[in-house]
Amino acid sequence: MGPMEFKYLIVLMLVLVLISLGKALYHLSQHTGDNKAVVRSLSWRIGLSAALFLLLILAYTQGWIRPNH
């Protein structure tokens, strides 16, 4: 995986996190009391965020990304 593909993967995961947050907000704003949908959406967000964090740590340790100094 090259640097550009990795950047696209990071952006894709961030977009998925935002979509899951939007879905949770939508279900929360509905007055149907569908708490399971809110919890499911927020669980997806937590899972995606954790996966993104681990992916960034892996990329740093493998030398795929470097911090700006």
Q: Percentage of helical residues?
A: over 70%
Q: Identify low-pLDDT runs.
A: none
The count of helical stretches stands at 2
Radius of gyration: 15 Å
The tally of beta strands, per DSSP, is 0
Which secondary-structure class do the elements indicate? mainly alpha
> What is the beta-strand fraction?
under 5%
Characterize the biggest β-sheet: none
Query: How do the helices and strands follow one another from N- to C-terminus?
Result: HH
Q: Shape from CA axes?
A: elongated
Q: Distance between the terminal alpha carbons, to the nearest Å?
A: 24 Å
Mean pLDDT figure? 88
Task: Walk me through the structure.
The chain is mostly helical. 80% of the residues lie in helices and 0% in strands. The protein contains two helices and no strands. α1 (3-29) packs antiparallel against α2. The model has no long low-confidence stretch (mean pLDDT 88).
